[in-house]
């Protein structure tokens, strides 16, 4: 019988791609989401409906906010989970600077509810969706897992750091717990079918969805926040990773949990950094469209450069990013061109 894995935030961008990989790897994902970052289609996220159609399967879904402790208890009484993959949470850097209390309340309280309910129901295996923002302004590049953490430049990053610390302390106190903390760099791209991808609600907070929306004609112009950084062309440099590669990293993490690994930390990135303007050019090539942009002031909380040293994940998880920048942009453009207004009016 397939192992049941609870996927929180499974209707969102990364979560939905992970659901695909879980099903294809033989797991049974049970998905919960509160629709804060997912488009509704009846009683389920549109992303989950499309995955069901794509893979010719059915997926159990529950509309649930992790702040709803009784609802969470009810779910854990119904199912015997082998592990939890935790994606759910608010995730916009700029918004977190403007609304820090909201981020602390939602991200931290929800996670504490989840951890306590897991403990009560003896579910002791966790994969946590962390972020390279825990490293703050990099002291050295590329960033490996031994790089100092905690000097976060924004409240979003601090919530990821605080959750990591909770997990580490809990695993230290409870020796039968296992956790893998995955520090993502910058996921982009979409499933090769073009049926699921990133569909931000409102104005995109991340670079590539905004660039893609400019290319498809949904938005007039891209704002490039800062061109005076100490980088190749003055714009911010990031490590962009294909979302499918990222999703496969979670399957590798689940396998690691089987080794009674304790608490482990891994970077998921490619090890290569690209500037904002380099990404604009790559998307122009993939789309065949000119992407107009203007230079705007720097955003609070941004750093100049951030890219990974992913060798530990390759050594210990047997995982390595497979898709190059060209493929990332091609898959992103396929998703955006097939779904010009996102899930609300796509081609599925």
TrEMBL record:
GO terms for cellular component: cytosol. It catalyses: UDP-N-acetyl-alpha-D-glucosamine = UDP-N-acetyl-alpha-D-galactosamine; UDP-alpha-D-glucose = UDP-alpha-D-galactose. It comes from the Eukaryota. The keyword NAD applies. Keywords: Carbohydrate metabolism, Galactose metabolism, Isomerase, NAD. One of its GO terms (molecular function) is UDP-N-acetylglucosamine 4-epimerase activity. CDD domains: UDP_G4E_1_SDR_e (cd05247). NCBIfam families: galE (TIGR01179), PRK10675.1 (NF007956). This is UDP-glucose 4-epimerase. It comes from Maylandia zebra (zebra mbuna).
């Amino acid at each position: 019988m397939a192992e049941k894995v609870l996927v929180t935030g499974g209707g969102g961008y990364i979560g939905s791609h992970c659901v695909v990989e879980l099903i294809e790897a033989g797991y049974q994902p049970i998905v919960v989401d509160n629709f804060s970052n997912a488009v509704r289609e009846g009683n389920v996220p549109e992303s989950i409906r499309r995955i069901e159609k794509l893979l010719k399967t059915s997926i159990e879904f529950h509309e649930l906010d992790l702040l709803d402790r009784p609802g969470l208890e009810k779910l854990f009484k119904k199912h015997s989970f082998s592990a939890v993959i935790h994606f759910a949470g608010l995730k916009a850097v700029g918004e977190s600077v403007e609304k820090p209390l909201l981020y602390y309340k939602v991200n931290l309280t929800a996670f504490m509810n989840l951890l306590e309910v897991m403990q009560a129901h003896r579910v002791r295996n966790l994969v946590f969706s962390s972020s390279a923002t825990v490293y703050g302004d990099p002291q050295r590049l590329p960033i490996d897992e031994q790089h100092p953490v905690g000097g976060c430049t924004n409240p979003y990053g601090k919530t990821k750091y605080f959750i990591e610390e909770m997990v580490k302390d809990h695993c230290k106190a409870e020796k039968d717990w296992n956790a893998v903390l995955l520090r993502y760099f910058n996921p982009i791209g979409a499933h090769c079918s073009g049926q699921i991808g990133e569909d931000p609600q409102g104005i995109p907070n991340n670079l590539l969805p905004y660039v893609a929306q400019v290319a498809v004609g949904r938005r007039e112009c891209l704002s490039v926040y800062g061109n005076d950084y100490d980088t190749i062309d003055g714009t911010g440099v990031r490590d962009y990773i294909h979302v499918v590669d990222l999703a496969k990293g979670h399957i590798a993490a689940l396998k690691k949990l089987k080794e009674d690994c304790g608490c482990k930390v891994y970077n998921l990135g490619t090890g290569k950094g690209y500037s904002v303007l380099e990404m604009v050019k790559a998307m122009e090539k993939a789309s065949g469209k000119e992407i107009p942009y203007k230079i705007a002031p720097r955003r609070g909380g941004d750093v100049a450069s951030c890219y990974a040293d992913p060798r530990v994940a390759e050594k210990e998880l047997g995982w390595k990013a497979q898709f190059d920048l060209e493929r990332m942009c091609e898959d992103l453009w396929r998703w955006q061109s097939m779904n010009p207004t996102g899930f609300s009016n796509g081609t599925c």
